[in-house]
Structures are given as C-alpha cells and as structure tokens.
Amino acid sequence: MNDVADLAGVSKASVSRFIGDDRALLSEAIAKRIEHAIETLGYRPNQMARGLKRGRTRLIGMLVADIRNPYSIAVMHGVETACRKHGYSLVVCNTDRDDEQERLHLAALRSYNIEGLIVNTLGHHLDELRELHTELPMVLVDRKVDELHSDLVGLDNQAAVRQALDHLQESGYRDVLMVTEPQDGTSSRIERVDAFMAEISQRAGMKGAVCDTGEHLRDHLRQFIAQEGPGPKALFTGNGVATLITTRQLHELGCHLFDDIGLIALDELDWYPLVGSGITSLAQPTHEMGITAFECLLERLRGDQAPVRLYDFPAQLIPRGSTRRRR
C-alpha cells in the first residue's frame, strides 16, 4: 500500500479509501492516479487481513450434508450467486453425513470468522450450533432442526405430494408405491412420507404404500409390479437420489420404461428427459431457494429482529412420458 501511495503521489489513507468503502470521498483525478498505480504494481489487497482489522470478513459459511447430491449443488449455486452480487464470499463445508466431520467443520468455520451460516444438515451437534447461533445469524435449508430457532427455506412438501398424486390420479393411476431414501431424521423426508400416507387415505379408489432405497428395494419393486391392485401402477420417488436408484433397479428387473409402470419424481435433474419417454418431475426452484437463503441471512446481518420465518416454495410439475394417461 505504501508503494502504491508513493507511485500515485498520495497518502496511504487515500489508497485505503480507494480500495475500501470510501472511494466516493476521493476526487476523480486522485482516484485515477491510484488506479493506475495499482495496475502498474499489480497490487492486490489482502481481503482477509482487511476484514479482520475492521471486524468484518465478508465470508458466509455453508454446511451441507452431501455435496454430491444434485439438490445441494443447485442450492449452493444460488447462494454463491447471491453472495457474489452483494460482495460476499462463500465457504462450503461438506459433512458427508458424518457427525464428526460436522463438528470439525463447525470449529473451522468459527475460526474463519464467518459473518453468517447457512445449514443443510441434520444438526446433530446441536450445542455447537446453538453456541454459534448466539454469535451470528443462521438460515436452515430444506431440513428443520427443531431446537434451533432459525429461518428456514425449503419446499412446501405437503403441496408437492398433493400435486404429484393429483397428476397420477388424473392420468389414471390407482396403485402407487412411494420410494424414499431411508429415514434418518431428515425433516423433509418425514414430511413427504406423512403427506403421502395422509393424501392416499383420503382418495377413494387409490392405494398406496412406502418403501425405501435400502437393500430390499428390488424385492419391493418386484412384488409391487407382480401383485394385484386397484388399477394402473406408478412409482413416486421422494428425491433425485431415490429416482436414480429406483430407475436402475427397474432397468435391472427388465421393466419396459414406462409401459409396465408409471413414474413421477420429486426433483428435476438433467437426465430425466433422456430415460425412456422422459420422467415426469416436480421441480424444486433450487436456485431461487439458494438466493432466498442468502438474502434472508443478509437481512439478519443488517439487524432484522423479526420473528423466525418459514419460506415454503411451490414445486413445478413437468409432465413427460413416464406418466402418460392410462385407461
């Protein structure tokens, strides 16, 4: 910074104003001299040091359960886009569904002096999360942590399940098997299964059951396809991971996709149009969810003390050949 000041013929304070938030205080002539000096010398400010000096790092942390999950990647992209727009940087930590990794990442994020945290995990280290929450704002994505009083951004799961069953029923399907990842306490999975069973119980002429993607999935699928039912059969997969596993199993069972059985999937992935005649989906507005999560966090950073908020987004039905109308 001293070298830039000497070359530009200005004070170090003027250089500090130029690279900080007070550039408007400088005359146009001085600003141009400083800019030229910075370009000539190839000067790059140490943003971390500047942030620590001012008590601000402009770093946002994001804790995700599984970075390989397409949902997590899509939401993360939305968060990062919003961070960049507002001059923040994103630090992403993947717990890989491992409680010890979650504990280590929380300690690391605290050491980085992040200004806020976006959480997409089960929150098994509740004490650490609570303690961190006393120091900075948090926003939950997709997964509720009941004991953590934070804003939540997610899907309206009940409405999405109702929308899926409405579509199946209108398309002539009467026998539905829901396939979900194994229950591990994830609130969104629990809500979707509960909503499915509640909706099925209220629909005359429809039958429904639930299984998971565990080691017995193929047996469940084989039995479902073979057994007598009230009418045409369809599968309803609870997320993108369940859809991929289920589609593989159907292929290995020799199913003619989608002549033998219908399929509707929660989540929209790039490969859905490429399987058979295309997989009907309920798309989550993941990018918008990520942006909303950051903007909600930003409001809290700016002092918003409003009560905890819940942002429930609707799903968008994308019909394809996997739920063609049955007679």
Describe this structure in words.
This protein has 327 residues and is an alpha/beta fold. It starts with a helix and ends in a 9-residue tail after the last strand.
Name some characteristics of this structure.
327 residues, alpha/beta, 6-stranded parallel sheet, 6-stranded mixed sheet, 12 helices, 12 strands, 43% helix, elongated
Major sheet: order of its strands?
2-1-3-4-5-11
Biggest pleated-sheet summary: 6 strands, parallel
Order of helices and strands: HHHHEHEHEHEEHEHEHEHEEHEE
Strand content bin = 15-25%
- Percentage of residues in helical conformation: 40-55%
Distance between the termini: 76 Å
Question: What does the average pLDDT come to?
Answer: 92
Stretches where pLDDT is under 50 for at least 5 consecutive residues are: none
Which class of secondary structure composition applies to the elements?
Answer: alpha/beta
Query: How many DSSP-defined strands?
Result: 12
